[in-house]
Amino acid sequence: MLVRTQRRRLRPRHHRLPLLGPDGQCTVSYSRPTNDDGCPKFVPVTSPSAEAVGFKLVCKNRIGDALYNRATPYSGRSLAFASFARDHVELNEFYWSGAAAMAAVSGLTRHWSHPDDYRTKLSLDPARFGTALPHTVELYTRDLVVSQRWHRRTALIALASILEKYMIAAASTALASDPLLLGGFPLVFDGITLMKRGIKAPKLDVADIARGDWSARLAAFARLFGSVPVNLRAVEGPLEKMRQTRNKIAHGFASDDDARTLTSHGAVLAGLGHQTQKPARISVSEKELVKYLGAVYDAAAAIDLHLCSRHIGAYEWAAIYLEWERNPIEYERQIGVNAWKTGLTRDKNARRFLKHVTGVNSFDQAELTSLKAYISSC
User: Fold this and answer.
1) Angle CA(235)–CA(238)–CA(240) in degrees, nearest 5?
2) pTM over cut 0.90
3) pLDDT band at 45 (very low <50, low <70, confident <90, very high)
4) Secondary structure letter of residue 311 according to DSSP
5) Rounded Cα gap, residues 119 and 136, in angstroms
6) Most distant pair of Cα atoms in the chain: their distance
7) Dihedrals phi, psi of 335, to nearest 5 degrees
8) Contact, 190 vs 378, CB < 8 A?
9) Parallel/antiparallel/unpaired status of strands 2-5 and 54-59
10) Whole-angstrom Cα distance, residue 29 to residue 56?
């Protein structure tokens, strides 16, 4: 019924992993390119022979006559993962487009001599760049090296942030969907029952899964959700190294994660420009960044499979519809959506809204009727 892909798909050999579970309602392939030894690898989006990591889902008819299957997300992934995937692709494009531009300019300036006016040769607007850039090509070339270094550092900081944002969002959705966290469908107690009646379940703190070192994060994940996915455990090492590097950069090159307060002597040294570590020691190579990009995607994919198949299912669709149904126009205004169209029935507007906020290509009346029937049964 439903086919969804990221806008960039892989063309070379694929390493396929099943995404969704035992009910057989979805045929899913998670596509990653492979090395010669068959292990997955991450391919930069600028590679002429490959594109960014993607996934493809083909959802068939649900069990029996019920089009809404509480156990199966319509898109095969949580909406939190869909948002993460968009951020991940955008971050790829940010890094590789910037890296390409800086490499191209470096290649040009390498052949220019001191008297050359590099700003004119690069067609840079004097009003904008005349005083902002150094006057000699040698100094500008030095600045490019610094820019490349910080471009990689910035990408790493953003990468760590989008993973943590996703983890908190997905864990919070799992708790809302399955308040007892017993896992498995049908749920012993469905969070839709509480939401439908406006009852707030006791909140559990999920912050620990995105706080501290990765061994502590995985332990917190296991306490909440029973176990740690194998594919998440497999990338613990790269994720921990990325976390340490991110913290050293973000905390002003501190020697450890907790060095956020300074002694009076340390404060004086910091004011004089002294640092506990030399900037050159906190470097991020392009090879390392590519590895982290792959590890972060693999971690999010593993978490999402685990939580969707055990706790989330199709909760988000019902929850979004319930929020919208109470006051459609006001709710759309609050979240910055303008899907309501005067003159259409409430059901047609509901379908327009659901398609708009979830990104699905189609959501017909039979599916909406099935969704509403499930909510009524809760």
Assistant:
1) 100
2) no
3) very low
4) I
5) 9
6) 79
7) -100, 5
8) yes
9) antiparallel
10) 6
